[in-house]
Design goal:
Helix content is 88%, strand content 0%. The protein is mainly α and 49 residues long. It has one domain. The longest helix is centred in the last third of the chain and has 24 residues, at 25-48. It is elongated and about 40 Å long. The protein starts with a helix and ends with a helix.
């Protein structure tokens, strides 16, 4: 279970960074939202360990 959450976490961080590096303001905001979601999952995973 933790491995699946870690993989999802990595995908969310990668997608968030990719969107932040784009030029569009909407993509910047979506990237920040993805990074926020990834951080919440990181806190959840660390709580399980």
């Amino acid at each position: 279970m933790e491995l699946l959450l870690i993989l999802v976490l990595g995908l969310l961080y990668a997608g968030g960074v990719y969107l932040i590096l784009r030029r569009s303001l909407v993509k910047l905001l979506l990237g920040i939202m993805l990074l926020g979601s990834a951080t919440n999952i990181l806190i959840f995973v660390l709580g399980l360990l």
